[in-house]
Amino acid sequence: MFKTVIKKLTSRASINNVMFILLLVLLRASVFGNYSVPTGSMNPTILEGDKFFSNKLAYGLKIPFTKTDIMRFCAPARGDIIAFRYPGDESVRYTKRVIAVPGDRIAIQDKRVILNGKKLDLRFVEKTPESMTYEERLGGRTYHVKHSYAATFLDDMKEVTVPAHSYFAMGDNRDNSSDSRVWGFVPEENIIGKIVFRWLSIDPQSYEPRMDRIGPVR
């Protein structure tokens, strides 16, 4: 009898564990995403060694493990940092900042973003021997972007209009980012979620935690 009771309890515990794991998988697939950026394309906003959560319900609810929407809550806004499937290889996840939304006209001139005919406001922050950092203002929010001194093929782009259900995304490290200037627009269906919180930051050189970086991502 004792063995039978133990067997039943063990069986129930196993079922509970399986249900718990399934719940975590569903939450991971539908609600929360855990990401890191292996390159410096979003520097200085996101550094190598940063780990952060994305809100997969920020814009809508998808059928888990698919690109199919069950419902849409809202659209990505200018300035949002999004996680998405790279259009050139959807097995790869990218993280960039939305600069232009459907219907916007966007051009790049001498490293400056021109949105709907107006240059985005820039305020100088600091300079190093390799680059200059500015505070850029877009969509009622501000964030830092980095520009190198050297001229690159990314410095200029003729004006384009963002088509329906698509977004123009760029890295904050403007001269070291493969983004919409290189491979085109982000399809709406490829967007996975909005980056919202940095939960860990480890210096990849010293392996020491950077506690001052923990918190919301803007």
Secondary structure blueprint with pairings:
Elements: H1 2-30, E1 32-36, E2 50-55, E3 60-62, E4 69-72, E5 81-85, E6 93-100, E7 105-109, E8 112-115, E9 118-119, E10 122-127, E11 131-138, E12 141-148, E13 157-161, E14 166-170, H2 180-183, E15 186-187, E16 191-201, E17 215-216
Any descriptors?
218 residues; alpha+beta; Umud Fragment, subunit A; 2 helices
Describe what you observe in this structure.
The chain has 218 residues and is of the alpha+beta class. It contains two helices and 17 strands. Strands 1, 2, 5, 6, 14, 15, 16 and 17 form an eight-stranded antiparallel sheet that branches. Strands 9-8-7-13 form a four-stranded antiparallel sheet, with no helix packed on it. Mean pLDDT is 86; it is low at 5-10 and 18-31.
- Structural class comes to alpha+beta
Q: Cα distance, first to last residue?
A: 60 Å
In the CATH scheme, the class would be Mainly Beta
Major sheet characteristics:
8 strands, antiparallel
Unreliable stretches covering 5 or more consecutive residues: 5-10, 18-31
